[in-house]
Structures are given as C-alpha cells and as structure tokens.
Amino acid sequence: MTRIPVLLVIAAVAARGLLAAIAADPAHVKEVNEWRAKHEADYTKEYVPLAGLFYLKPGANTAGSAPGSDILLPKRVAALVGRIVSENSRIRFEPSAGSSVTLKGKAVTAPVILKSDGADDYDELAIGDVTFWVHESGARRAIRLRDPQSEVAKSFKGFRWFPIDGQYRVTGKFIKDAKPREITMPLLTGDDDHGTTEGLVEFTLNGAKIRMRPITTRPGRLWFIFRDATAGKETYEAARFLYSDLKPDGTTVLDFNEAYNPPCSFNAFTTCPLPLPENRLTIRIPAGELAYAGHP
Hints:
The protein is built from three helices and 18 strands. It is an alpha+beta fold.
C-alpha cells in the first residue's frame, strides 16, 4: 500500500472516530434526552387530547352533546351547556340554565366575553375533564376541544426520534435585516397567520452552506419552521419546528436533535404553519423527531 492511500485510510478512521466522539458526548446526550422528555410530556398534555375543532359561524353557536350541536361535546356532557356567540369580533359564552361549565374554577352563571388563545391568559371553559376555548386560525375563530378520554387520545402511538448525533448540532450566524418586518405564514388549514422576522441564520451542515429565516417569537428567541429532504419519508412531510436562542455575539446554536413535529402530524384538530420558501431545504437532516407512526 502506498503512502497516500495509507494516509487516507488513517484520516478516514480518525474522522469516523471524531464523529463518534461528537455523537456520543454524554453531556449533549443528557441535555437532548431531558429536552425530549419534557417536550413529550408537554405535547402529551397539551395536544394529544385535542378532540375537536369547530369553526364559529356569525351569531349563536350551540354547544353540547346533542346531535346537531354546532360545537359537539362528548356524550357524557349535557345535551346543551350553552351558546357561543360570535358578534362584532367578540366571542361570548352564554350558559344554559343549570349548566355546570366553569371558568378558572368558578361556575359560569352569566354571559362572559372569552379571550382567545392568541392571549397568554386565554379563557378555558371546563366541564369536568372536558375543556374548550376560542382558538385563532388566521382571521377565523374556532372552538378547540380537549378530551383526555377521547378515542384520539387513547389511540395515540407515541413519539419516535432519530438517534442523537452531535454533528447535527451547529452554530449559525445571524444576518440581520435592515429592519424587522411582518410576514405571512400559510397554514395547513388554508388560513394565513403572521409573524415577525428580523433576519436570516447562516450555518454549515455536512459541508453545505445553508440559510434559513426564523420567526422572532420574543427578543432573542428564534423559531424555525422548515422541511428537508427526509420529509415525506423518515420525517413529517409538511414541516418540523426548531427553536434557538440568539446570543449577544450574533450567533445561535441550532440543535437539530431537538427538531420536532408540529401537532398536526398526529392530530387533525390542529392548525400548523408551513415553511417559508427559503426554509424548504434540499439536504437531508436525519436528526430530531421521526414521522408519527399513526395517521392524524
């Protein structure tokens, strides 16, 4: 064997060893596993039990378990619990006589204006373990229902992930726009949502230079809605999400081991944004969450 091939073999072995060392970094593995465990717990509580999404028509919308109700609640709930009235951009709940609906632990005995989930302190109505509230889907308003006893919740098949791989944790450089701007984000439902963007993040992954545009959800917090060449195969076809924090030096760490599916990947009663054109990547990123094993 000549000197050059020998050096190439040594270099290849060293490179594999280096990648293995990166992938097996115990601190990184622990960090990602802890993040995944918290994410699974949060999603299991918040999104897995979603059991209905009812778009409101102008005027009165009946709510109860009676067949034909505009907002059809589980059978264990009363036939009519009240009306939800959509009027002049305001949503009002009017309880029926003897209704057992509560709001923040107190019985609702008179009409009440409801704050949608566009607010941090939105109003969630409850009847036992059944809860429902006003959900914003672009310009439309709907009632979203959560029922931990629903067939949707009981049939959930769990979360699946790629093995943790350190080479998919990269540092990117934030390239700031001249000024922040609002952009339109199309939703799977056909509605449009809006978000604020302030620039691009440039990074190198597996030798490829990539730029993605995040949404700024709060100062220094970046939300990436993206898809890559694994989409529709190993990963969810529409999109995956990834968050990162912008550091004072203008860099941000993107750990694709923490890339995860939007809830619409496993639950049909959700509304999810689609990637911007610049976030539809042609490279493969086999890291983070795999496609859901069942079907929404």
